[in-house]
Amino acid sequence: FFFFFFLQFFFFFLQLKLSFFRHRNTAMTAITTSILLLVVSLTSMALEVIAAVDGAAPSSVSPSPPSPLVQWSQYRRFGNHSGYSEKIPFHSYPTAKWVYQTQGVADTSLIVMDDVVYFGDASGIIRALDKNSGASVWNFTLGGSMVATPCVLNDHVIAAGIDGTVYKIDKTHGFETWRSFASAPILASPLCFSTDGTAVIANQNGNVFRYDMSLTHPEAMWFVDLDGLFRATPAYSSSLVILCNDIGNITALSLTTGEVAWSLHINGSIWDAPSINDAEGIMYVGALNSYTLYAIDFTLTSASIRWKYVYPVTVSFGSVTPTILPSGDIVFGAWDYRIVCFDGKTGEELWVYRLGEWLFSSPIASDSVIAFGGITTAVNFISYTNLQSLQVASMGLEGYVMGSPATDGETVFFLSRDGGLYAIGERSSSVAANTLIITAIVASVLLIIAAVAAYICSKKYHSETRYAPLS
Q: Torsions phi, psi of 400, nearest 5?
């Protein structure tokens, strides 16, 4: 189609030249050729469309089954909070497939399970949306506000409110099946275990509960009272529940009994969840006030600092959960307006992306792509396959993004602080191609009209010149 289209340009300019040099018969031939080329172009486009709709001839090879979609059941997907996904598409030209706008402030991260996206907002409403269309599936109103990300635990959604209430909600229909009152507000997200239907909840008073949510009326399996305030979501690795508080204490509890396995103190306040490399037995956590990133070796009975990176800043805001890449390296930022990839074992800087602003949204990562929210540019993708030349794509939203995004492997979901949920995908190549084809057709028709008009004008001009009286 485009070959014939551009060929029209050649005949158009040939016709103009011939017309004004009085080769009008040849010019008319050029116009006729242009019209014929337009017909050929339209025919070729029609054949392409028919081929796209009907497909090629039946093949004897059965099509491969679609790859399973990523399930994102809790904050940062896994109990180790690595933020890893088998696939995150790199969108060179990201665009919103759909947008769902609420009226509340939203600071939570997102959950994506099967065909539903779950999230909560500061007004205390948990929403379940169809991930393909953004249509509302159900809403559930808590007794107060919430900042903790809910989790999907088998057939239920587990949510915690700032008022200290823990809710068990039917994930299909959105009705409450149980609630319990904790002793203090809850800021940390629940840590859920689908294998046995249990959940660990930590509150602002330093109380830690493990509930058996598989029961019709869930009961606390154990309870521990620790020092400090818990904002950071508990993490899990190697039968240990690891908790970090606002005074720099890191405590490991036995998942089975709740007994303290070990404790470690670092310099600074911990607001965001740690991430854990299970294979290496290394935990990564950022500490506010001291603006230090720590790598901590741990076993079932002890822990020690492996390395630390002190940021050269005295004032900064926000903190994120470090992201663990498949290589074992980690991505962290941006107290100094940078996102840095560190060697997970040594702390050596491997590559740097200068963000230009503080980072509040914990990135998620695949084998080749990192996705995260932002303030000035709310949606960001980095392809790090070529470390010499990082590919970056971004787009702005109405509000900025503080929560960690989530993905099903095809679409990446971002929740902006103004309450807008955005399903981000790539601008459809077929739509772009169709737009280009329509533009080319219109241009072709205009070229032919212009060619005919030029031919008529040149004929009139030469006629007047030929028979004009001598002065």
A: -95, 165
Instruction: Kindly state the average pLDDT of the residues 109-115.
Output: 95
How is residue 361 annotated by DSSP?
S
Q: Name the nearest CA neighbour of 362 among 332, 404, 331, 334.
A: 404
Q: 239, 249 in Cβ contact below 8 A?
A: no
Please give the order of strands across the beta sheet that includes 406-407. Answer: 94-101, 420-426, 412-415, 406-407
Report CA torsion sign: 395, 401, 402, 403. negative
Residue range 192-226, pLDDT digits in tens? 999 999 999 999 999 999 999 999 999 999 999 99
Q: Which two tokens stand for residue 252?
A: 């490991």
Residue 351 neighbours by CB distance under 10 Å: 15
- Percent of the chain residues topping a pLDDT of 90: 63
Residues 46-76 pLDDT 10s: 555 444 444 433 333 333 344 458 999 999 9
Rg (CA), the chain: 31
By C-alpha distance, which of 158, 170, 165 is closest to 142?
165
Only one residue has tokens 């609630």, namely: 179
Query: Which H or E run contains 425?
Result: strand 420-426
Higher pLDDT, 11 or 203: 203
Preceding amide of 182 cis, omega within 30: no
